[in-house]
Specification:
single chain; two-stranded antiparallel sheet; two-stranded antiparallel ribbon; 3 domains; mainly alpha
């Protein structure tokens, strides 16, 4: 890793300005209302290897970043690093067995986000969005169920809903806990059906207006197209425009009640608006008279199609293995998906069992997306944060404001799409290190003591012992806030 003079000067300047602000504010109470997010205040053991070892790799890739103490907690699960990693992964695949008191306590003030969809109409959209994003960041920072949080982010993009479209301003909040979180580690078929009948999805992709009330009516294709292209078989899955039309016909008649009147946000099937004729989807015939059952028949066909297994396997391999995973890995993971009938836990086990997952070459090779980067910075520094507007502004500036991607394909996962965010990452690193983000603060001297000194702190942030060049850069900056800013802005920290 090399540090450019421009970036170094930028961070030194930012840290110095932050130090001045802090000193001028030292005589009066801080206006921070941050949530206590630190795991503990005890000493912790940083990595000791010169390269990223298996434990650091797993914590980098399967979580939103290691917090102080996470490494020891993982290693206590087995006699060897391999055994401990395997036990940790299995525990993460069953989040219901892991207590998670910190986020539960922090999110008590957001209890309204868990209300039924119809009740959410009582809140102003901008208030809901603010609280929804804040709660999402806090969960990612605080939760011990990190793999679940990573999968929630993955499925949120897979079944993307732009919260700015119509009633999605209210309904996406319920979709998050009723669809995405409930089924994130369950069966893909259940997740897909929950999404297909979600009030938010019926609004976002116009399923609520997909009607066949009289001869000659043309079904609305929006959801049918994305169901095939994005949610199941994939753009290269072999479907045709005819398949899109037939799927749309099979899904006619599903609607959601408007926000005014009795039963608001209730999903209903209107048989008089359903095309009940025979249909052929991906070569399989649906007999006439299926009615409401046509939905499940369509979903059964698309979920069991081989292209769906490959599409989902490819997405998981790109997230956990490499931006361009090998054919053998995708095929093996797809085989597990098919054999287990879309069991997400089993499919993830297949991903983590691949030799590619543990190879040295893949460690630190993936660029973090902005959300991952911001949350990992908060976790690495043991930040106390309220996840408020000032922090969320950085996510917006980096281009990944949660729940606000305008098209159905969700935020991109490739590194090229995010390289233009580097300046804002440097700004975030500098501001966080210098305690310039209102509602968020870190304690670099305390972290340094707990890590056993400068090099221990650097090893914790980087996931490995610092190089001679990195130690020199840290020393030249005098450590402290400027050094921490440089670490968080470094290429090594921006990758996982």
């Amino acid at each position: 890793m090399t540090f450019s003079a421009t970036r170094r000067e930028f961070l030194i300047g930012g840290a110095a300005a932050g130090a001045g602000l802090l000193s001028s504010a030292a005589c009066r109470p801080s206006p921070l209302f941050g949530v206590e997010t630190r795991a503990h205040v005890e000493p912790f053991e940083p990595p000791r290897g010169e390269s990223i070892d298996l434990v650091s790799h797993v914590l980098n890739r399967c979580t939103f970043g290691a917090r102080p103490g996470d490494r020891e907690s993982l290693l206590r699960l087995g006699a060897t690093a391999d055994a401990a990693v395997n036990a940790w992964i299995e525990a993460q695949l069953h989040p219901e067995r892991t207590g998670d008191e910190a986020p539960a306590q922090a999110l008590r003030r957001f209890a309204h986000l868990m209300e039924p969809a119809g009740e959410l109409y009582e809140y102003k959209p901008r208030v809901l969005l603010r609280d929804f994003v804040c709660a999402t960041v806090l969960r990612a920072v605080l939760s011990r169920r990190q793999l679940e949080e990573v999968m929630v982010e993955l499925w949120t993009d897979h079944f993307n809903i732009d919260i700015s479209k119509g009633d999605c301003a209210w309904l996406k909040v319920a979709d998050d806990h009723e669809v995405i979180r409930r089924h994130a580690l369950g069966r893909f078929r259940d997740l897909l059906r929950a999404s297909a009948t979600s009030p938010a999805m019926l609004w976002y992709l116009d399923g609520r207006v997909n009607r066949y009330a009289r001869a000659g009516d043309r079904p609305n294709e929006n959801y049918a197209r994305e169901l095939l292209e994005l949610h199941t078989v994939g753009v290269h899955g072999g479907y045709t425009q005819r398949d899109v039309m037939e799927v749309a016909r099979g899904l006619t008649g599903w609607s959601v009640r408007p926000k005014r009147g009795f039963g608001k946000a209730r999903v209903e099937f209107h048989s008089h608006e359903h095309d009940d004729g025979a249909k052929v989807v991906l070569g399989q015939r649906l007999p006439a008279g299926g009615g409401e059952a046509d939905l499940d028949r369509v979903l059964d066909i698309v979920v069991s199609h081989p292209a769906t297994a490959r599409h989902i396997a490819g997405k998981l391999c790109r997230r956990f293995l490499a931006d361009e995973p090998g054919e053998a890995a995708v095929a093996a993971v797809a085989e597990t998906f098919t054999r287990t009938q879309g069991d997400i836990r089993a499919t993830l086990r297949a991903v983590f069992a691949r030799p590619e997952f543990r190879e040295d070459a893949v460690r630190g090779a993936k660029l973090k997306r902005p959300f991952h980067y911001v949350v990992s910075a908060l976790r690495a520094t043991d930040a106390v944060t309220d996840a408020g507007p000032r922090l969320v502004d950085f996510l917006t500036s980096m281009g990944q404001a949660p729940f606000q991607y305008p098209t159905p394909d969700g935020y991109p996962t490739d590194a090229a799409s995010w390289r233009g965010t580097l300046v804002w990452r440097w700004k975030l690193a500098s501001a966080l290190a210098a305690n310039q983000i209102h509602g968020t603060r870190i304690d670099v001297p305390s972290l340094r003591r707990r890590a056993g000194g400068d090099e221990g702190l650097m090893a914790h942030v980087l996931g490995r012992r610092p190089s001679v060049r990195e130690v020199r850069a840290w020393t030249e900056l005098g450590g402290g806030a400027a050094g921490m800013g440089l670490l968080l802005a470094s290429p090594a920290f921006q990758r996982c």
